[in-house]
Amino acid sequence: MSTDAPLVIAMDGPSGTGKSSAARRLAGSLGAAYLDTGAMYRVATLHALRAGVDLTDAGAVDHATRELPLVIGTDPTHELVELAGEDVRVEIRGAAVTGAVSAVSAVPAVRERLVAAQRALVEQAGRIVVEGRDIGTVVLPAADLKVYLTASAQARAARRADQDGSADRAAVLADVQRRDHLDSTRVASPLRPADDAVTVDTSEIDLDGVLDRLHALVQQVEGVRQ
Ligand SMILES: Nc1ncnc2c1ncn2[C@@H]1O[C@H](COP(=O)(O)OP(=O)(O)OP(=O)(O)O)[C@@H](O)[C@H]1O
Ligand SMILES: Nc1ccn([C@@H]2O[C@H](COP(=O)(O)O)[C@@H](O)[C@H]2O)c(=O)n1
Predict the structure, then answer these.
(1) Atom 11 (ligand 2): residue with closest C-alpha?
(2) What tens-digit pLDDT sequence spans the chain (226 residues)?
(3) Which of 42, 160, 178, 198 is deepest in the core (most CB within 10 A)?
(4) Burial level of 71, CB count in 10 A (0-12/13-18/19+)?
(5) Is the minimum distance from the CB of 45 to ligand 1 under 6 angstroms?
(6) Ligand 2 pocket: which of 15, 17, 41 to mutate (most atoms within 8 A of CB)
(7) pTM to 2 decimal places
(8) ipTM above 0.90, yes or no
(9) For the residues of 143-165, what is the DSSP string, one character each?
(10) 197 within 8 A of 148, measured Cβ to Cβ
(11) CB of 150 within 8 A of CB of 201?
């Protein structure tokens, strides 16, 4: 099979399971594009925060994010995230946005617009790994392969604390659990595995091990399609 054959891989799971790291590397090795949909919700959140809207008011969040001058790249070797031409890669990962993003992503009108943009990017790319919370269930229900990454909250919090250089592991764990709860209990497109997703628990596997598992799954899918 030629390396430019269409291939759509959906990767979902809670925070800190390794979705971004694994999806980016998988895309690079498959010669595919990569889409970080969490970054899109983070940009919408930054835009709403800058507009000073009350994030508990869904109508106000909807209104404030209707015009969202967002540019997101899909090259797995080059991260590009811009809001009105400004590079916001660092700011969207900060505490203010991380603390507010679940409120913004729970607003159905925000999701509708971002899902439409995500589908358009997938259509353009043809061969792509897309990661988020609702990719297998809502955004791309016909994906060729759906993977749901999990890991214990403790493992995820330890990774996040190492990544951010935080000594307060209890606070990081509480934040991880708070976001898990909000993302999985919201009414609009809650975080959950698609019925046909393959679950991979990354608690005890390093990133190379996760990549081995993902490559084996891709080979199975490509074998079936040949
Ligand atoms: N299997 C693994 N073992 C150990 N550390 C890992 C593993 N996978 C990822 N990591 C590390 O965990 C941290 C979080 O990974 P990553 O950002 O890829 O997770 P994520 O699921 O995309 O999180 P979020 O949804 O919050 O963006 C990173 O520092 C990454 O290097
Ligand atoms: N498909 C998605 C992706 C993300 N979200 C929301 O965005 C938050 C940030 O995601 P990260 O992957 O960058 O941590 C996440 O907590 C969700 O609230 C989403 O709803 N759907």
Answers:
(1) 38
(2) 446 789 999 999 999 999 999 999 999 999 999 999 999 999 999 999 999 999 999 999 999 999 999 999 999 999 999 999 999 999 999 999 999 999 999 999 999 999 999 999 999 999 999 999 999 999 999 999 999 999 999 999 999 999 888 888 899 999 999 999 999 999 999 999 999 999 999 999 999 999 999 999 999 998 877 6
(3) 42
(4) middle
(5) no
(6) 41
(7) 0.96
(8) yes
(9) -SEEEEEE--HHHHHHHHHHHHT
(10) yes
(11) yes
Question: What tokens were used for 95?
Answer: 């505490």
165, two tokens = 């250089």
The phi and psi torsions of 112 (rounded to 5 degrees) equal -55, -45
Decide whether any atom of ligand 1 lies within 6 Å of the 38 Cβ. Answer: yes
- Cα 21 from Cα 76, distance rounded (Å): 10
